[in-house]
Specification:
Layout lengths: L11 H9 L6 E5 L6 H17 L4 E5 L6 H9 L6 E2 L9 E5 L11 H5 L2 E6 L12 E4 L6 H11 L6 H14 L8 H12 L4 H9 L5 H12 L2 E5 L3 E7 L4 H10 L4 E7 L3 E8 L1 H6 L4 H12 L3 E4 L3 E7 L4 H14 L4 E5 L3 H4 L2
Parallel strand pairs: 1-2, 1-4, 2-3, 4-5, 5-6, 8-9
Antiparallel strand pairs: 7-8, 7-13, 9-10, 10-12, 11-12
The protein binds manganese (II) ion.
């Protein structure tokens, strides 16, 4: 079964020919954003299978700039996929890169120099993608809710039958990025059916993803993040929450959105740079601006000496480590003013004092 072509800039055949044309013994490295989530890891493992199948004379490695997240680890372990994941120090062996599920060079952390200095292909679905311009091959479709679907498109094009556990992993990648199918469309279901017909285990994928255990550190981060957050309004209607934490930003932001924030920002301070993560409620995306998180982070990056981007509802920026919380707030105000919104304080919270 081959899935229909209905998407943008998905040059499946060109990608396959590019891989086929490489000399025996060439080292291909598949990589993804730092702290890789299940969609990134599933895409990488799927691409590795594909490359091994269309050109078995190549050597293919998965290289992570800064490891993979706990859920991805749990998936690999529970599915019995013994994937050796190399670190950035091993990047010197890579002749070519395939970058999956990644939208900016900064998301590649310590690998960004290695990737930039070599030919690379990109397989991605983020709304804003800054890596495409320089990529030699691209499978890019911002309308796909997961990168795993793009990888399935490749696998189905070459009529491959990947091992069952890899199919299950790809199903998990789709479930994770579509928020358990909330963001799915008919093409997503086509991809799932393809994977299931070939032996992928839907039940297993969803049960591993739902069995997430929350660590004590994560619980503390969420509670701290909530208790020190500042609350603001946009045109006296929408609610914005801003906070800072040491780590676990995505869990903190999820809790803020679930508690009622329309836009939530979390700042995590690091030595080299500060990381700002943004999440947006579905309601705001639908009624006001479908790409606001990507726009905010891009603006923060440009204005505060860094780089930002991502999805409309979830995005991140790395900004200058010296930028203070007050400056972040000022830039946020500017951003919203440029969009016709007035940002007002509802309750200042402790974040301005505690984040610097
Ligand atoms: Mn993804």
């Amino acid at each position: 079964m081959s899935l229909g072509e209905s998407t943008q800039r998905v040059k499946v055949e060109e990608f396959v020919d590019w891989v086929k044309g490489k000399k025996a013994g060439t080292d291909f490295c598949v990589t993804f954003h730092r702290n890789a989530d299940p969609d990134a890891v599933a895409s990488a493992v799927g691409v590795k299978e594909l490359i091994n199948s269309v050109n078995p004379s190549l050597r293919v490695h998965v290289v992570a700039p800064e490891g993979i997240n706990l859920l991805s680890k749990a998936l690999l372990t529970k599915l019995g996929i013994e994937e050796v994941i190399l670190g950035p120090k091993d990047a010197c062996l890579c002749n070519y890169f395939v970058v999956v599920d990644t939208s900016t060079l900064s998301q590649l952390g310590d690998l960004s120099e290695s990737v930039r200095s070599r030919q690379y292909a990109i397989i991605d679905h983020h709304e804003v993608n800054e890596l495409i311009a320089e990529a030699v091959k691209a499978l890019y479709d911002p309308y796909r809710p997961s990168a795993s679907e793009l990888v399935i498109r490749l696998l189905s094009f070459v009529r491959m039958r990947p091992p069952r556990e890899v199919l299950t992993l790809l199903i998990a990648g789709i479930l994770f990025d579509t928020k358990f199918l909330k963001l799915a469309d008919e093409h997503t279901f086509e991809s799932l059916i393809w994977a299931m017909k070939l032996g992928g285990d839907y039940q297993k994928a969803q049960s591993i993803l739902s069995s997430k255990e929350v660590s004590r550190a994560e619980k503390i981060a969420v509670l701290k993040g909530l208790s020190r957050s500042g609350l603001y309004t946009l045109n006296k209607e929408w609610l914005v929450a801003v906070t800072c934490v040491g780590s676990n930003e995505s869990s903190v932001l999820k809790a803020l959105i679930e508690a009622g924030a329309d836009i939530a920002l979390a700042i995590a301070r690091r030595k080299e740079h500060n990381r700002v993560s943004v999440r947006v409620s579905k309601n705001f995306l639908k009624q006001v601006n479908p790409s606001v998180a990507a726009e905010i982070t891009k603006y923060l990056g440009e204005t505060l000496g860094g780089e930002g981007g991502g999805h409309g509802g979830a995005a991140g920026a790395l900004i200058n480590a010296k930028a203070t919380s007050k400056e972040v707030l000022k830039v946020l105000k500017e951003f919203f003013e440029s969009k016709g919104f007035k940002l007002r304080v509802l309750e200042e919270g402790r974040w301005l004092r505690e984040c610097d």
